[in-house]
Amino acid sequence: MNTLGGDKTRTEATVNHRHIADLFEDGESASHEWLIALGRTLKQCWAAKLRLDFPDRRFEVQFDETLAVDSIDYEITFYQQR
User: Is the full-model pTM beyond 0.85?
Assistant: First the structure.
C-alpha cells in the first residue's frame, strides 16, 4: 500500500497478478500461442468464479493478449472495481 500511495485498486492488481508462464514447469519453452490461450481461459474462469463467490461485488479481470516479446510478460490480474 505504501509503495502504491495507498491506492487499493493498484495494490489489489499487483498482489493478485500472476505470470502465465509461471504455471508451466518450464514457462520459457511454452509457445506464445499456448500462453495466450491459457490466459484467455483463465480470464473467463476467474471472472466467473469471482461473480459466483462475490455476487455483490464487481471485479475487473485483465489479461493483455498482445503478442509479447518475452513469455514472462503475459500476466493476468484482477481487482475490485471502485
Answer: yes
Which residues of the chain, if any, have pLDDT below 70? none
Task: Give the DSSP H/E element, type plus range, for residue 32.
Answer: helix 32-53
Q: Look at residue 65 in the predicted model and tell me its pLDDT.
A: 95
Write out pLDDT tens, residues 25-43: 887 788 999 999 999 999 9
Neighbours of 11 (CB within 10 A): 16
Q: Are 78 and 16 in contact (CB under 8 A)?
A: yes
- CA 22, CA 56: separation in Å to the nearest integer? 31
Query: C-alpha cell of 24?
Result: 508451466
The CA distance from 31 to 17, in Å, is 20
Q: CA 72, 73, 76, 78 torsion: positive or negative? A: positive
- Helix (H) or strand (E) holding 22, with range, is none
